[in-house]
Amino acid sequence: MRTGSPIRVAVVNDYAIVVAGVAAMLAAHRERVKVVELDSGLPVLTDVDVILYDTFGQVQGDGVDLEDLVHGSSARVIIFSWNTQPDLVERAIVKGASGYLSKALDGEAMVEAIEAVHAGTIVLPRDEAGGTVDDPSAERGAWPGREVGLSHREAEVLALITQGLSNQEIAERSYLSINSVKTYIRLAYRKIGVTRRTQAMLWGMQNGFEPDRIRVVDAEASEA
CA-CA distance, 119 to 17, in Å (whole number)? Predict the structure, then answer.
């Protein structure tokens, strides 16, 4: 464990805008947490203390390949998600995650959780009831389509459509009921002005909903 220096963090998700949004939330706390690598669709290469895995459009729970994330390092993994169902959280922790955070947290709370995980504490969502956070007032960070009014859930469903998943696969990936998936699809279609799935997929491909393959490394990190 490093002492007297910021905790080194990598943020991971398949969408560059998502990882950049998470990094921006932590930017005001550079003296405590230093984001040294942002990875979209690529493995973490820098020696970091904590890997923050954002679940937007990704596999979740025990489906997360933690060994692939840590890439043989001693980094601890924190799952950052809107889905905080107790069974989902439990499976992620049992598989080896060191923390599971709700996306309703602000930057200060995230940093406190990262510090706790770095110190060896298992951190769980503060909402003991668990569930799926879906309060527009709690939405933080960034995601594709936010500029046109898509909520985080609508954007995630559209991202999965763009990836070619069926409604049932989307429900299984995002831990939503099939009826909820259909509701989010209707709302998203209305906001982006389409009526058919093929139109939605085309719109998604033209508006940043295809997964990225980008790595951004802090220049100082490679020298540390």
Answer: 29
**Span 142-159, pLDDT tens digits:** 999 999 999 999 999 999
- The parent domain of residue 82 ranges over 7-132+211-223
Q: How many domains does the chain have?
A: 2
Q: What is the pLDDT of residues 9-37, one digit of tens each?
A: 999 999 999 999 999 999 999 999 999 99
How long is the chain?
224
Query: Same structural domain for residues 118 and 187?
Result: no
pLDDT of amino acid 134: 52
Residues 6+ apart with CB under 8 A from 169: 160
pTM given for the model: 0.87
Tell me, yes or no, whether 1 lies in a domain.
no
- Pairwise CA distance, residues 206 & 63, whole Å: 29
